[in-house]
Amino acid sequence: MWFCCPREENLMKIAKFKHPFGVQSTPGVLHEYSLVILEMDLLSGTYLLAVLLACIVFQSGAQEKNYTVREELPENVLIGNLLKDLNLTLDPDVPLSSPLQFKLVYKTGDVPLVRVEENTGEIFTAANRIDREKLCAGIFSENRCFYEVEVAVLPDEVFRLVKIRFLIEDINDNAPLFPSTVINISIPENTAINSRYSVPSAIDPDIGVNGIQHYELLKGQNVFGLDITETPEGDKWPQLIVQQILDREQKDTYVMKIKVEDGGSPPRSSTAILQVTVTDVNDNRPVFKENDIEVSVPENAPVGTSVSQLHATDADLGSNAQIHFYFSNQISSLAKRLFAIDNTTGLITIREPLDREESPVHKLTVLASDGSSTPSRATVTVNVTDINDNVPSIDTRYIINPVNGTVLLSEKAPLNTKIALITVMDKDADQNGKVTCFTDHDVPFRLKPVFDNQFLLETATFLDYEATREYAIKIVASDSGKPPLNQSAMLLIKIKDENDNAPVFTQPIIGLSIPENNAPGTQLTKISATDADSGRNAEISYILGSDAPPIFNLDRRTGILTAVRKLDREKQDRYSFTVLAKDNGMPPLQTNATVTVSVLDQNDNSPAFTHNEYNFYVPENLPMYGTVGLITVTDADAGDNAAVTLSILNGRDNFIIDPLTGVIRPNITFDREQQGSYTFQVKAVDGGRLQRSSTAKVTINVVDVNDNRPVFVIPSSNYSYELVPTSASPGSVVTKVFAVDNDTGMNAELRYSIIGGNSRGLFTIDQLTGNITLKEKVIASDHGLHRLVIKVNDLGQPESLYTIALVHLFVNETVTNSSYVQELVRRNMETPVGQNIGDGEITPQTNDYVKIIIAIIAGTMTVILIKKKKKKKKRSPKSLLLNFVTIEESKPDDPGHEHINGTLDIPVELEEQTMGKYNWATTPTTFKPDSPDLAKHYKSASPQPTFQIKPETPVPPKKHHVIQELPLDNTFVVGCDSLSKCSSSSSDPYSVSECSCQGGFKTPGPIHTRQPSCGLRLEEKDKSFALEENYQEMKPQEEKPYEMGTNNIRA
C-alpha cells in the first residue's frame, strides 16, 4: 500500500509498500492507496490529523466487507467467501509460518450468528438463526439493521483484520395483530354522513412491504365504510366512515369485523370484532392548542419531573365540555412505563428513570375526549438528552485463544504477533461517547488502532521467558466527558518456555545386584534425571527401552524400577537394558542410560534326580562292592547351594553309595532265589544355608544265574508207586512226573527223560510235560514192579543242572496186597540206581509166610489205631495228623538179608490246610519301557516254586544235588482197595482225588493215624489253581516259602 507522512517542505512524498497479498482494485474495498499531499499555502491541522489517521488505518491492514443476508435462514447456508470476495492471493515470495487461516473474533460468551471456515474463508449461517425483529428491535427502516463481526486473517505475515457488516433483510415472518380482539367505538346518533372515526391500528413487527398494507371492513351492512390515512412516518391508520343516518332509538349497536393484511408473499392477516355503539349527541370535540409538541429531557431527570403540559378546549357547555386526557394504545409499552399523564390537567410527567441508551426518543400520542366518540389527537415527541453517565466498556476478543482466561504465548513468538482485538464503547453520545484506549505501564506489547474504537493488541518486542514469565496488562479506556469516566480491564499473558534442554541422568550406567526370589513389585532402585527447562518441558517421563525384558517395570513419573515377577537366577543371571528419560516438550527431547541387573543366587532349588525312579539289573553272582549303577543328580543353584551329597535311606546297610559320585555298590552277596529285588530311597542334600533335599526310588533287580537244580514235586516220594493195569493200551498215560526250578527264564526250562529201569522200552516219557505213557502192549513177562530212573534237567547256561527221581510202576491187573507191593518198593530202594529190577525178583506169588507176617502187622496196627482214637479228643475237620514214616533197617553184608526193624517217628501235627498246597506264584521281572531289557531271552512267565520239599534223608550241605532223595509220601498209604481209581480217575493229571482205605503195620507202639489219600492234595476250596500241560505259562499266586523237614514244617 501507499503510505505518507507530511513534512515541513509540504512536498509530495510517496513510498511504495508491497503487501504479501497481490490485491487488485475492487470497489468498496481498501487495497493499495496512494496518498498525495499537495503543496498548500494553508493546511489546517484538522486535515493533517485526518490524513495521519487514514495512513494508520491503511497500514494496519484493516478492511471492511458488506454482505446482505435474509433473516431466519437455516444453518450452513453459504453467505460469501472472503478469499474470493476480497481478491486475496498469496505472494509465493513471502514464506508463511503456518497455513492461511481465517479466524472469527468474537467476545467470550457470545454466540455468533455466522460461522467462518478457517481454511477457506467461506462464511455460513450458524445454528442460531438471525431474527431481525429481535436483533434490531425499534428500528423500522429497511436499511438500518446491521450485524457486525470481525475476522482475523492469519498468520502474522499476511495479517489483516476484516470488519464484516451484514445487512439483515426482513422476511414476512410476523402477522399484523390488533391490540385487542374486540374494538369498541361510540358514535353519536346525530353524526353526519361521511363523518370519520379513528379505529385502533394493528401492529406488525415486520417492515417495508412485509408491514401493514391494507385494512378491510367485513359485514359493514352499508351503514359504515372504512378508509385508511397514512402518517408522515408511513404508519397507516384506519378510519370508520358513517354512510347512513344513525338512529339510536331504532338500533343502538352494530357488530362488524375488521381485517388487517400485510404485503408479504404470501400475505399474513388477522381480524378483530368491531362493535359500534350509537350514543346521544355531543356535537363539539376538544381542540388541542398544539397538535405536535417536541421537548428535550435529560436522561438523569428525576421521577416526577414535568415533561410537557398539554392544553385543549371544548366549545360545548357543561359535562360535554369536560375534557379527559389519556395515552393512545398505539404508544409503545416502554413509553407507557416511563411516562404518566394527568387525566384532568394533561400534564405529562416522568414515571420511571429515563435511559437515553435504552431509547433516545419517545413518541407519545395523547387523546383528549369530552365523552364523545371522537377524541382529539396530539403527538408529543420526547428527546432524551445525554449526560456522561456511562463508563466506557472494554470488549476483548482473543485472536490467540486463552486458557482459563490467560493467553499462552511462546517466547519464540515473532514481532507483531496479534493477541487480541480490543473494542471500546461508550453508550453516551457526542463527546461523552468518544473513547481513547491505552496501557497503564511499559510492557512489550502495544495497542494498534484498526477501526473506530477498535485496537489490536500485538507484541512490540521479542519475549524472554527467563526474564519475565508472565504479564498482567492493564488496558484503560477513557471517554471525553467532563469529568471523564474511565474503565480498565486486565489481560493476562503467560510466556511459554521452549523445550531446548534434554534431560540428563545422574548416572549414565546404573549397576544393580538383586537376590532372586524377590516378591513381585519389589523396588530395585529409583532412577532420576534433571532438565534445565521448566514446566512441561522439565517434566520427565521415564520409559523402559525396547530391549528391556517384560519382567521389569519403570514408573513413568517417579522413575522407580521394580520387578513385576520373581527373578530366577537359574533362568537368567544377568540383565542389561536401556532406560529413557523423556521430557514433555514439543517436540520432546530424551536421553538414555544403561541398567545392568545381576541376579544373586539363593538356595531355591532342591537337588534334582535325572529320574524319579531308577531300575538297575545285576547278576546274582555280582561280588560284594561291585558296581551296581550310577545315580546322577543336579542342582540348578550355584556355589555351595549346588554342592550335593547323596545318602541311602532305609537300605538296611545292604548297599553303599558314594556321596559325591553317586556310585552304588552292594554290601551283600545276592541270591535271586532268596530275594529277587531290593528297593530303597536315595536322598540328595545340597550345601545351602537352609538345606534342601529330594529323594528318588532305587530298585535293584537281581538277574537270575543258573544256580538251582530242578526239584520234583510229583512223585512226592521215592517210595510211592503207581498201578499199571495189564489191560492198558499203548499210548495211554500211566503216570506223570512234575518238577520245578527256582530259577527263571531258560534256567527254569525243564526237560524230562528216562535214564534207567526201562531196559525193555516198555515206557516212554514226554520230555516237556513229564507224562509217562505205555509204549507197547503189556505181555506176561512185563508183570511186576518197574523202577524207572527219571532225570529232569534245565536249559540253563553255561551249565545245565539236573535231578534224578525214582518212579515205581506196578504192572498187574489189581493190587490185592498193597503191603506186599510196598515192601517190594522198600527193598528196591536198597538196590543201586544203575541196576534194573527184573520180574523174577518180586512177583505177586510170594510165599505164604510173608503174607501172614504182613497181615499180622496190619491187623495189629489197626487195633492200636482204633483204641488211640477213642482216647483222643475229637479233632477239628481242618486239623489232621501228618505222619512222616521213617524206616531204618540194619544192612548186613549179606545183600539178601530180609529182616526189617521197623521204627516209627511220631511227627508234629499240622493243619491240613497248610499241607498238600503248592504256591506257584512268582512275580515275573517286568522291565520298564525306558529300562534296558536285560532278560529278553528269559520267559517271564516261568513258574517258580515258593518252597522246596527237603529230603528226609540228610544229605551233604550242597546247594546243587544230582540225585533228589524224596521223602516218604505225606499221605502214606498202607493199603488201598481201589488204587487204580486213585491214580487214573481224575481228568487232570495233576489233580488227585481222595480215596479211603484201611490197613496198617504191626508196631510195638501207638501210631497216630489220619484219613489217607493217594498223593499231594492239589485242590482246595478257598485257593485253587489248575496246572496246564505247559506249566511255563502258568501264573500262580505268590505265597511265602515253606520248608518241610522230617519232623517239622517251618513257615
UniProtKB/TrEMBL annotation:
<keyword id="KW-0325">Glycoprotein</keyword>
<feature type="domain" description="Cadherin">
    <location>
        <begin position="610"/>
        <end position="712"/>
    </location>
</feature>
<dbReference type="InterPro" id="IPR002126">
    <property type="entry name" value="Cadherin-like_dom"/>
</dbReference>
<keyword id="KW-1003">Cell membrane</keyword>
<feature type="region of interest" description="Disordered">
    <location>
        <begin position="938"/>
        <end position="958"/>
    </location>
</feature>
<feature type="domain" description="Cadherin">
    <location>
        <begin position="72"/>
        <end position="178"/>
    </location>
</feature>
<dbReference type="Pfam" id="PF08374">
    <property type="entry name" value="Protocadherin"/>
</dbReference>
<keyword id="KW-0130">Cell adhesion</keyword>
<feature type="domain" description="Cadherin">
    <location>
        <begin position="401"/>
        <end position="505"/>
    </location>
</feature>
<dbReference type="Pfam" id="PF08266">
    <property type="entry name" value="Cadherin_2"/>
</dbReference>
<dbReference type="GO" id="GO:0005509">
    <property type="term" value="F:calcium ion binding"/>
</dbReference>
<keyword id="KW-0472">Membrane</keyword>
<keyword id="KW-0106">Calcium</keyword>
<feature type="transmembrane region" description="Helical">
    <location>
        <begin position="849"/>
        <end position="866"/>
    </location>
</feature>
<dbReference type="GO" id="GO:0007156">
    <property type="term" value="P:homophilic cell adhesion via plasma membrane adhesion molecules"/>
</dbReference>
<feature type="domain" description="Cadherin">
    <location>
        <begin position="724"/>
        <end position="834"/>
    </location>
</feature>
<feature type="region of interest" description="Disordered">
    <location>
        <begin position="1030"/>
        <end position="1051"/>
    </location>
</feature>
<dbReference type="InterPro" id="IPR015919">
    <property type="entry name" value="Cadherin-like_sf"/>
</dbReference>
<keyword id="KW-0812">Transmembrane</keyword>
<feature type="domain" description="Cadherin">
    <location>
        <begin position="289"/>
        <end position="394"/>
    </location>
</feature>
<keyword id="KW-0732">Signal</keyword>
<protein>
    <recommendedName>
        <fullName>Cadherin domain-containing protein</fullName>
    </recommendedName>
</protein>
<dbReference type="InterPro" id="IPR050174">
    <property type="entry name" value="Protocadherin/Cadherin-CA"/>
</dbReference>
<keyword id="KW-1133">Transmembrane helix</keyword>
<dbReference type="InterPro" id="IPR013164">
    <property type="entry name" value="Cadherin_N"/>
</dbReference>
<feature type="domain" description="Cadherin">
    <location>
        <begin position="506"/>
        <end position="609"/>
    </location>
</feature>
<dbReference type="InterPro" id="IPR020894">
    <property type="entry name" value="Cadherin_CS"/>
</dbReference>
<feature type="domain" description="Cadherin">
    <location>
        <begin position="179"/>
        <end position="288"/>
    </location>
</feature>
<dbReference type="GO" id="GO:0005886">
    <property type="term" value="C:plasma membrane"/>
</dbReference>
<comment type="function">
    <text>Potential calcium-dependent cell-adhesion protein.</text>
</comment>
<dbReference type="InterPro" id="IPR013585">
    <property type="entry name" value="Protocadherin"/>
</dbReference>
<dbReference type="Pfam" id="PF00028">
    <property type="entry name" value="Cadherin"/>
</dbReference>
<keyword id="KW-0677">Repeat</keyword>
